Write the structure tokens for this entry.
Amino acid sequence: MKKTISIALVVVCITITGAKGQQVNSHVPWTKEDSAAINALALYPDSVRMKIFLACEYPAIIVNVASLQKNSSTDFANLVSTFPQSKQEDIWNLTRYPNLISQLVQGGQKSKSDIETILAGYPSEIHDVALNYATNNYDLLKSVDDLQNQTNQQFQQLISSYPTDVQRTFTDLLQLPEVLSLLNDHLSLSVRVGDHFKRDPQWVIAKSDSVAMVEAKQNAQQVQDWKQTLQQDTGAQRELKAAANEYADSNGYNSSDVTAPRDSNDINNYSVNPYPYWFGYPDWYPYAYWYPYPYWYDWGFYYGPYGNMVVFGCPSFYFTNWYFWHPNHWSRYPHLGSAYIHNYYTPRRSYSMSRLVVHNWVQENRKYLPSGFVKNEATRPEAIRQIGQLSQQSVDRNGRINTEARDQNFSNNKARYSALNNNPSQPKVDEEKQIPEVRQGFTKQPAVSPPRVQPNNNRPNYNTQPNTNRPSYNYGNIQRAQSYHSGGWEQAQPSNRSQPSRSSQPTYHAQPQQAPRSMPSAPSRGGGGRR
């Protein structure tokens, strides 16, 4: 497949001065994997990229932190395992709010009025759950808080011998759990990034800034292309709304929530706290689900005050995965599938996880797809509808398509599927590299209370409340970057497993980045620092 951006395989021949005046030779060849690693980091805000670059210089910390996380997440799962899934989800959600559980348990069990005083600094959607568990399950919350404190102490001990800036970097990255997971899951690429940054930080920073500008522009153009596709294809627009309703319904939302108008300020400034890194995300999800966003974030649109469709991004990985997972969706919403093909098979291809879902679907079904499928707008929806109908007849109990049964069904009923390739033994769609499977069976997402349109809405931002001790991140932008990060590194370093690790993230268009910064001086290497 063509890369979104081409970075030549160059040889870096710059010499920089080390901390003690020695000359550090950075004559290091850049490989295809090196370029992919840098490209995949491009959409993160520059402040986050710098943290990632520095963290990559310390792969031992990455591995040790991941080991600590594995133990703490197992201990947490054991704590809540005796509860039904609905209550486990409640407890997991309580952990997402900074210092909430700590405040609820410190000093012993509290009265209702004391609990309500604490909850005044947190969003209203968590009040009832927090009051219930603080009143009726104090011992459980105390055990969760003890585990959190114990793990934090072990973490502080683990990083205590490293320079202060390194300690601060890893402490900050705890608030970006997907980043730490990806760095460990793709450790060889992390080592590559760290090695190049250690040898030539100025070049890596400048290159990543340059790539960020290009990628941000291309991502923004992809969203604009998606908007234009929906404007020109009323069938796709109508089916996106219908599919979005079905998606929301399958996640437990009622129709009044789905059609409620949203305020653009709420949409643009919506914030969500991830599940904490030490505890992980709910273990019934087969894919990474660190950031529970409401349904409209996955759609990529919301309803304006007059019921109009306001598109703000491309559909997320979760929604895309949901659509392409089951052939029922292909046959019911073929114009939507056609819009996906149109949007992702353009010169501006990306490495997002959504893009990879679409790409793999085409490759999996290529022998049945007719000639010109990728480019023929007029005949493509009917082909998608018929491949959906054909495949529905061959789905096994696990939701997978039995390809042998499908082949037999097609052989016996070719006349019924006239829009498909009549001779599957001679595929009409070009074969391309297929990465490890990125789709997963649909699992209900946690219901997240949607923002309500309220005049003069001055609700407190609990991220700024005292004692949270957390850096402030726009998780919407972080999440958009992570899909590109995951997709790019999946392509650069395919997994040997039949299923991917639980580290897939949704994609959204990135905000425009600033121009590349001027070359900074090389970071200090003194005091027993980065070696």
